[in-house]
Queue: 4 jobs
Job 1
Amino acid sequence: MQIFLDYLWVFLVGGFVCMLGEILIITTNITSARILVTFVLIGVFLEAIDVFDYISDFAKAGINVPIIGFGASLAKGAIGAVKTHGFLGIFTGGLTATAGGIAAAIGFAFLFGLIFKSHTKK
Amino acid sequence: MQKNQTFKLKRKPKIIGSYTIVGPKEGKGNFGPYFDYVMKNDYFGEKTFEKAERKMIESAVTGVIQNAKLQTKDIDMMIAGDLLNQIISSSYAARAFKFPFLGVYGACSTMAESYAVASVLVDGGYFDNVVCCTGSHFSTAERQYRFPLELGNQRPPTSQWTVTGAGASVISLSGDGPCISAVTFGKVVDYGVNDVNNMGAAMAPAARDTLLAHFLNTKTTPDDYDLIITGDLGKLGSEILIDLMEEDGITLGVNYGDCGQMYYKREQKTLCGASGAGCCATAFNSYIIKKIKEGQYKKVLFLPTGALLSSISTQQGDTIPCVCHAIVIEKE
Amino acid sequence: MEDKQRNEAYNKYVSAKIPKTKAWPSLFNSFWVGGLICVLGQGINDLLLLAFPNLSMQTAWALTLITLIFLASFLTGLGVYDQIGKFAGGGSIVPITGFSNSITSPSIEFKSEGIIYGICVKMFTIAGPVIVFGVASSMVVGFIYWIISLF
């Protein structure tokens, strides 16, 4: 039962966050690059004011899979690195914490860019 | 006092041949049965979409020369244009032929622009047979003006679908076919629209400007034409044009139509309709020419509009200037 | 001056004329597709922890995101992701899979201009700002914490 509830929260919060993105698209016609930037900044902000972890506790993937989670790890990395390394942490923290995701995105994009050809839209 | 924008062509140059080539989606559209050739896929046997567009224009030119029952050596001049930067598709296609070449650019109005220039040149007696050709390709336009094809974004409800296709005609004094009796060259008009996903609204004022000038200069009214057809204003744009003309006291009735709006079937989900240089080029050279020859239309006013923007002007926040050229085609 | 008034009036008229589409279907689609992608992520995460119980939470999340990025990149290559995007809109843009799609799609698209000037240069045309804004804002946050930690 508990696991069902957990997944329900993931679905509801994740769906809600994505729906916010869709509302932005419909009302302002903004491009996907701007949507992604907006949500990353929301994530950075939520982490900076220390709210993200409270949402993450019950929403789990619902908030970590949307790009908000990416923003939060950037901020979390920077804060953590400042605590351990001091000034240098400002520069190293963010990218260190998100290195896996960025490297994966670049690596797979390069690989599939070499393999696949673009398809005309239907 | 304004100078006259309209020229009556005394010797009435004729459209002695026409040819169209389109992509698979277009082949399934409303004009499908009228096209000369429907490609099986958008690559047309080439490695890139740009090369496919080039090959499309080449085949259209080859096809139209055959259709006009001429030979390559009979052609004096080729006037062509497309949507890509530096109109590479037309210029590279022209490389394959040994004609003098004039590249023209009027965005989606390119077909009318090339007709207008060609018919004036032929009427003046300088050239005998002039080939006009215009094309566009959905996938090349999409990546030049918008986003990569595989990006998972949604199209706004006012957006239009660039036609994959090329249309060509041969204009000459000798031979049979519908004739071009008058040409109105349009002015560039900008009503301050800067939404690149709403071309119809940006271009409608240009169509109005040219229509008004044409009616004034030729002393005609909409009722004098069997068909008044705009290029790719789309559903929204053509409604706007009707409203704008109403303001000037001119009613566009049942004899008014828009190629972009008529192009695709409703279930093809193209939102506001078709657009692109290939839209009016293929619609005109297939369906409309055929109906003129059959006698259904005796006098047609053809006025495609073009949005003269580039992705750089858009990013700098500029509004969209537009142009519209009109030609009158009559059954001989 | 007259032109400016004319343009304002025209733009006002146009925005009133734009067809109003029903928002509910697209909101609903973005909701359930977005929710489903998140549920998929949670599933992968739970399975990883089940298979390798001594993984740390952080490692498990990183591997989950990498898996999702891989899937989205692959689906983009197959030409499936843009169709999901057309249907779901925000539902497939906002998750990390949308980020992956926005890097892979120009990479495939601009392959025709070569590996260096095509794939590598154009790869970041859409995702570049995301990384720039993300890193820059994390530096701002880090800087603020550093200042605070001084006192």
Job 2
Amino acid sequence: MQLIVNGLIAGSLAALMAGGLALVYGVLGIFNLALGQLALIGGYGTWWLHASGIPLFPSLIGGMAIGAIFTWLTFEIAVAPFYRRDARIPLVTTIAWSMILDAAILLTLEERPRSILPGGKHFLPFDAVRISVEQIVLIGCTLIFVCVVAWVLHSTPFGRKIRATVQHPDAARSLGISSSLLHRIVFIVSGVLAACGGIYIGIDQNLTPTLAFPVTIKAYAALIAGGKDNFWGTILAAYIIAMLEQLAVGTPWWFGNYVSAGYQSIVALLFIIVVLLIKPTGLFSHRARAA
Amino acid sequence: MPRFYNLPEMPFFFHLITVIAIALPAQLGYTFVFGRGKILHFGPIGVSTVAAYGTFLTLNATGSFLLGLCAGVLMALAFSLLFAWLSFRLDSDGLGIMSIAVYLALFAVVLNWTSLTRGALGLPRIPRVPFADSAMSFALLTTGACVLWTLFFLWLDRTKLARQVSALAEGEWHAKALGISRAGAHIAAFVILGLTLASDNFFYAQYYHLLHPSDYYFPAFVSLLMITVAGKPGSTPGAIIATILLSLLKEGLRFLPFPSAVLGPLRLMLFGIILLAAVWIQRDTLFPKKRTI
């Protein structure tokens, strides 16, 4: 039971990040490798505001706003000048941008771990599982965020514009839909989701500059395993990978011995390799239509 | 002995020569794979890691440099083939992400298998090959190896394989229609890169007498990527010039009057800016559009 709860906690973080990635990949067809750094900026922004004496809720909004501003900067500097030339270029430029952001975080905030709520968590008095109020709120908020994004995408005029741009950018443009503006908005939404992920880390664990890359790669693992064109598939894959990671290190495998927690990150990789062997396009990818 | 051997700057000069000579072969290998082949292989440092640990764990166990080198080469080849297989199963950008994931997984194994690798402590007291113990002889040895690799890549640029790799990068389906085997060309490219990485890592830890995991952090890959892009993607002479200039810059930065806690991030930021600027300048040639008649 505890493993499932741990999987839900870790899966929610991965889902938050991977949902944004799926959105960006679906609409713009690009990968953003600075996503982990944007998550950290959102988390550190919230930590800084809260540590400066601002109450928690405005700090959370402020953290997301800081994340949104940096995501917009990321788009303008590392994506917009390149992605129409070739969708692969942002993969390289966002690596460069992630290095710049990493360096800026290291120079301004150092490597010390920071927690948004340093006073400790409020654990619920259950015997079977150990879970805090904060963790339940975070899991709930993640589900709400992801559902809101999916609702906007599938049931609003704005979502229809996005889907029209994905299906036929030129036709959408001829109908008066500004694809450039839509691309910016979608990219910034993914950054805000990532910033929420950073806030999640800052509340549930500690923020450290070294977290950025593993977090990004885990989210991408979910994207690839779930099927890059499937939003819900990506979310589901994020939870599956997180569950597998928890099971891998929380279950005695041989003669009561456990796998070291350090090997946890390898589970996601092995999972993807198995998925690729069985279905190279991802577990939940749509069947491509052919003429 | 000629007078210049007595100059106090000479050890640093040999250091520069050695650093460039060690870095260049892998740089040329990566230029071939990423620059010429446009293969988004972002895991070469993973191959470096396993090659280096394979080499020096075998060396420590057997005392034989030859066996160590063979083990390193075998490890590099095995993981290069794994990356090549991934490149067949994934589209281009998916490979970029997955190769980073494989690298992180390999790195996690190195850090956590402490009974074998000593984890974050690394492997100290790595000996140098007996005939190259001094700074000058080691510089000569690495320069010799580097010259051989450079000649090999200059020759490779004019071979059928290079043309096939370029053709696949420009238009895979068209190249296949002309009878070019993607599997064959890409496996060859990955294997060549793997061999250069094994060669580099055979010398690198010997030079510093230490094999440390911090040398295999992700910025090491960014340096590789930066030089490939800055030296004009796919150009061997460009990669040579960029390696020399950027290695000099990297080594020169250590003389800035900043503490290491500041110097590290500054270097990271500078390299990020150089990479971004290099992509900006090369944005039309990095992934060129298909030619049309």
Job 3
Amino acid sequence: MKKYLLALIALSVIAASCSSSTSSTDSSANTNDVADGPVTLTLLAHDSFTPTPGIFDAFTAATGIAVEVVQSGDAGQLITKAVLTSGNPEGDVLWGVDNTLLSRALEADVFSAYQTPNTKFMDATLLHDIPGHEVTPVDTGDVCINYDIAWFKSRNIAPPLTLDALTNKQYANLLVVPSALSSSPGLAFLMATIAEFGTDGWQSYWKSLRDNGVMVVDGWTQAYGTEFSGAAGNGDRPIVVSYSSSPSAEVIFADPPVDAAPTAVASLTCFEQIEYTGILRGTKHEAEAKLLIDYLTDLTFQNDLPLTQFVFPVHSGAVLPEAFTKYALRPENPLRLEADVIATNRTTWLDEWSAIVLK
Amino acid sequence: MNQVASTNVAPSLYRRSARWLWIAPAVFLVLILVIPTTAIILRGATFEGFRDVLNNSTIKQALWFTAWQALASTALTLIVALPATFVLSRFTFTGNRALQALITVPFLLPTVVVGAAFLAVLPSQLHYTATALIVAHAYFNLTVVVRIVGARWEQLHPGIEQAARTLGASPFAVFRTVTLPLLRSALATASGVIALFAFTSYGIVRTLGGPGRATIETEIYTRSVLIGDMPGAIALSIVQMIVLTALLWWWAKRHRDTSESPQISVAQRSPSTRGQIALVYGIALATAAVVIAPLSALVWRSLTRTTPGATRFTLSGWRAVTSSTTLSAISTSTLFALCAMVIATVLGLMVALGVAYGSPRFVWLERISVLPLTVSAVTIGLGILITYDTTPYDFRSAWMVTPLAHSLIALPLVVRIVLPVVRQIPRGLQSVASTLGATPLQTWLTVDRPLMSRAIGASAAIAFAISIGEFGATSFLTRRSSETLPVTISRLLSRPGDALRTQAYALCVIVVVISMIAIFLIDMLRPSRKAK
């Protein structure tokens, strides 16, 4: 009988906690519906959106608008859901569509256009792909070849500095890349090769890479964390596709602290990723959402980006912390592809790429 | 027609109450599964989508690969798990329950963790091979055999086997001619479940199989989420549904359990002879070693950082884990898992009792209860997203959606575990109880429930495990303002920096410990099985 009682108590505790959580979400939902009460904006973001906790307090203090961040999956999942719910969105503002995925969102008419006054602080090239201001740039990053400095030094081999060099025999079986089909840096690296060798030349480049023993893994986590030799020291491949900011992350998150990054970036191999935010079409709080876009592109938020998310701010007045400028390389002329070229060819490229590399 | 005859023996005293049991599970399935799936199919299915998918050679390859790796994974799981199942269900020994809980752990680890653990222990030439993914599937599914087959094995009276031994049969002959036939239905159920899991496996295939090895499930995900080809994804999803449903119904028909156990018992004994002791502890230790090896890699990695030429110990990962975000992830995960466990177990019991006692006509309920396993998780999730999107039925932001989705996936397993046991319960006892004046509920509680407690415990444990490990692609189906543990872990693993990596592995170890405690407690709730 004792066991029954135990089970019964456990059950009622579970039931109670289940229903108490329901009621707490209900009450917050209710305050949402009251027209005159304070507005809560829902910011949909991918899992890598990790600003300093409390970063929106200043926004709430200034405007009276609360911000709830809701994360759901990676950028691809975020866009898939936004496309399906276009016009009847799950939130008010979306963070985290980049230039490789933008076309999918624009085709489905996911966003409601808005030009923030902060665009005057942005480089004109950032706005090139979005003449209609459907979305607003918030940060940029570069996907580049990273290499293990010590590995090359100890063997007296020069590290590869260009994409072309990767097909040389001396770099045979040294490169690991995440798949373009399943990983956002993987897709960006494919775009880099297309930008470098042209829409007709990249196929033969990838055939040479394949013949030179490139290893393709599912995601960045396996490529960088498991197979690459420079980071955790577990893998045996000294060349990897990662971000231009990865060396500074290696320093900032080093344990114990180190003076120099163990990895470096080949600056001629970088592809520029621009990340955008936008107001979701169908939101009931369009006016408030515009204020949030202004805040995301203003200095308080922009200054927070480098050390929390390892990306470069778009606001020209933003100050880069020293740890970041010292180790994070900012390529002068990163490889770029026009958004409409990406939009027209994306699916075909992915089909061709998997036929060459994965078969 | 045999099975209908045997269910007809069901005591009429249950029939009146059991007749209504189908309502709740049926409503649940219609709301969470049937309507959303239909909605997404109506929205996204096109003729071109089908034509393209059926003509695509990648897809044909994927279908072939999916099928053979599922069979291979099932065979390997049975080979590794049966000795342990024998020992665990036949003998009481120190550590029996701990071993049982330990075997459950791989099943509830997030697949990204199982992937990381395997990459850590497998030699590098096995990375991203079909072998790696089959071995990982076997590791992952050990507990399915131990729990499903174990529940049945434990019920077999040892006297049957002893009688055969006394008559001169060798131990192997006894196993082959006596034990195996009696276990046949449980083995069929377990193999069916494992094959289904391996068929629709997603995370392990992606991390361990490498990008070149696509299964139908990963192809559905690639098309819908990564490429944005919704018609293609829907077409594939329908193909998968049809293939799996057909296979399952054929399987269920072939392996309908018609055997009645002549005697039922929950008796176990301690190993007595020296040979038995060696056998029991040998198998137990070997199984424990197999389970622990990848797990210990997680502990090791949470405590060390490797630089070229040196490995150093560090506690920084563990210090960072005590932060408040981590603690809230732990409590969110646990709460979701408990809710999913209760919902799935209660609904699953209702299905099992409704089918066994209500009316032979309710067999349809058993059949549709298996559907959640055949529909791709991506399809269900996207379906829910576009179905419940209008006020006052806008449930997209309700947190309950996550545990509900988890219980949907757990439900078929609960039914599969409980139903065969319900069917084995001797009918005579119930008639006696009711003749003596007990109400149907009293009869059920005093006669049936004790005999079913192991099966109920097993299904509760599996439901809890499914929820905490966040199966397949369910993780992205629902939005969350509070992170669950698997999400935190994969977020930490997806950033450069050693400090974050040790922290991620420390969290993995925490998942293992929480799960073991939970499983241990759930197992404790059932009565002691030692022979009096």
Job 4
Amino acid sequence: MGELRLMKGNEAIAEAAIRVGCDGYFGYPITPQSEVMEYLMAEKPYETTGMVVLQAESEVAAINMLYGGAGTGKMVMTSSSSPGISLMQEGISYLAGTQLPALIVNIVRGGPGLGTIQPSQADYFQAVKGGGHGDYYTIVYAPASVQEMADFVKLGFDAAFHYRTPVLILSDGAIGQMMEKVYLPDPIPRRTEEEVISQCPWASTGKPPTREHHIMTSLDLDPAGQERLNLLLQEKYRVIEEKEVLYEKIDCDDAEYVFVAFGLSARICQKAVHLAREQGIKVGLFRPITLFPFPKKPLQELGKKVKGMLVVEMNAGQMIEDVILSVGFQIPIKHYGRFGGIIPTPDEVFRMLKEKIIGG
Amino acid sequence: MAKIKGDIVVNIERCKGCEVCIASCPFSTISMSEEVNSKGYHFAIKVNDDCTGCSNCALVCPDGVITVYRAKVTV
Amino acid sequence: MEEKFAHPELRTPENLVYKRTDFLVDRPLSYCPGCGHGVVHRMLMEVVEDKGIGSITIGISPVGCSVLAYDFLNVDMLGAAHGRAPALATAIKRLWPNRYVFTYQGDGDLAAIGTAETIHACNRGENFTIIFINNGIYGMTGGQMAPTTLPGMRTSTCPYGRDVGIMGHPMKITELIAQLPGTYYVTRQAVHTPAAVRKTKKALRKAIDCQDLGKGIGFVEVVSNCNSGWKMTPVQANQWMEEHMFPKYPLGDIKVDGELVK
């Protein structure tokens, strides 16, 4: 276990990036995640680990800087918040289509449009259903604590390189801004150029006379070739669905009812579970940690044991679609959501569980 | 007497018959063939013996189909 | 086939004075007959060969006709999203400072959709080379108006000629970026005559050499033709270019060694 510190979630992401040997961060300021770049610029990792940190002219430029860096095998990341992530979607689609590894952090704020700077989970669909054009997915991790903000940087990069795919950390303004204690990972040195070349034999790093030139592109004008790429991607996503599912079950063993919630909502529901149990009602919490791949099977199993589920999200009902697709219609599954930056309270979601599920 | 003599070799199958080389030749040595290649393009051919191997044609050729040789020959 | 004026006896390695560089992949170019892309590709690869940097060069192709440049340039390549090549190049050069990095972009890519990336990369003084092909039209999509389309020039989206009152003025982005402190060498060249081709090669060499100095962007605009888009023969297109494009886009150095040319 590494060094213990009290940090903001956004700072934890930044510090973890330096420590796991990230090669480059490219970003554009937007509330509520600007601390990521501010922290990096203050820490000056370019003088210590050699990590490049650059404030781009836009989110569009930033994501394409990632595309360039990723295409040369470097460990690159960006962070932004909802409107900025929308701007990045074309680039994320290119990363997926070209099969390049990159880490993208979305500290979600309320929308649509310019919305608000307050926390939200309204970008669930955008994150887990592809987001940009074409048939693709990104692996999506949903941290619920500052500790997980730090931990998921390494987890994310590992998955990104293993599967050669963009990975998203879907957090929100509250977890980005809140301060908690966090055990930081021990520093790993950045890979040398030789290590990058040997670990990423597919990358465009400069063509030695001994091999063919490498081309990083998602373009294939031949429909048969483009279909082959799509089939390859789909095959990769099936493996990811098989192997990369992460979730947490709290008090589910004897539960008659469960909350299903991710990220910040899961923290609130965890408190609501305590409130319920104080009243003798057996309630549990199921928290998907990966939103893609979605924990379909464990949720399906849980659905056979409980009498009902309340899906709590800070949106109008997005993850509930995946919950119903996993569990089916045998038990009541209802949604409770708040929008626009309003964070529901534990009392509120417990009351809703009673109204919509237990009493219903 | 020594004289500069040149020769060009045209990659006929790659020539697209754009004729840019014709305008670049100071000795009007190049013209287009009557025949066409497998793509249907007329291609560059030598039509006189005045080539000095100056490489102008090869330089302006968009498809890089011309190879140029040059030597001093005694006549 | 009869080669009436052929001199096979001259075709020996010691007499070879010009051949297509092996830094071009041995396959037919996808460009239209007479298109300037092929010449610029070849000059660029000759510079890479002459400088001996083939194994440490990374190129970025745009969206447009030359999206397929990566199929022809025998160095490691990336294909950028439309207009974003300078963003890719920025990251690559900073992450691999010992690599030679270039972008190859058309007028729509560099001067319309990618204007922000172009200007900001130039303004930051990034140390890569930008090659900008300006033919005043969108070639690949079938001849639509470009930011550099001349007033009165007909394209498929200004079929009655570019009306600057409605469609705005042609953008001289090369003069614009030359004003920025982050550009070190800015020039405008052409490839329609042997002399122009030789000058373009020298310009490309100088622009790549800028990366050794680390003083900012080397930027080479090549005013070129689009005979398909202009609906002319290649030879007519080159004449039209001289008569119409060059007065608006005059050839020559615009900024040398970080100083504007008076």
